[in-house]
Amino acid sequence: MDIVTQGLLGGVLAQSVAHRHEKRIASVVGVVAGLLADADVLIGSASDPLLNIEYHRHFTHSLVFIPIGAAIAALLLWPFLRRSVTPSRLYVFSLAGYSMSGMLDALTSYGTHLFWPFTDDRLSLNIISIVDPVFTLILMIGLVLGFWRRSQAMVLTAIVLCVTYLGLAWIQHQRADTLAMQLAQSRGHQPEQSLVKPTLANLLLWRSVYIESDRIYVDAVRPGMFSGARIYEGESVPLFQGPVELESLAPGTVLYRDIQRFVEFSDGYVAFDPNQPNVLGDIRYSMLPVSARPLWGIVVDIGEPKQHVDYRFFRESNAHERQVFLDMVLGR
Asked: Dihedrals φ, ψ of 285, to 5°?
């Protein structure tokens, strides 16, 4: 999830293993340890833009890296906290703060290399948005009250509420998946590959993406929590056919390999942007849940096979699009 939530979760978890007189120091250690896993965002190369997306949420988010990450956090903090905490307790707080960084990100749609090095597959459970203000607020209140009142009950209440919220998110995911499959079947489709994921900052509206007969179909479904279910039919685009569309490109070239890397990162949900024919986009993400315009993509220039691709974001939105999104969230 977003870096703020990661830090808050780390702080709350560290508080949960601290004694009353340790709550405040544990909060600080936990927040820092919770943030540390996302230091992999610094891995990058000016000449190879795809290196960053390949290594973000990679080994630093793996389960086997947890004790190592905790040790790094403890070593970084020791010079500043050596007069306030013992080495063993510092490591315990760091371990608690770092422990759920990978798992939290695995609950989102971006994907995490949780089981690296045993497999290089990304785990994406798609039950919560990368930014979810309700989940973040629960953690923030729990951390602040735990720090201020040094109360274990406050900390445990925040943890229970977070688990309950994630349970609700899982239920919503199952409902959204059922609606999405019903829509596909009503079209006579049997999806070869599909996913549903929550749209930004809510559990009410979900984006459905599936592949059928060499096309990617994008829709939005609102499974309903306080009102009836709704379906918003969206767009479809031709699926990128790698071997066919790259026939003119030699397999050993930098461009060819970059395209393959991007297709793998995007789990195959790749198509050319309808409005930018030279942009190969990750169709899992868009500014509007019914749109096939990608949120990010790579610029493909067949005339420059020896050059790395340019990786770009397309986050522009206007007032109309924002209103359309809000209307769908509210079920209008």
From this structure: -125, 140
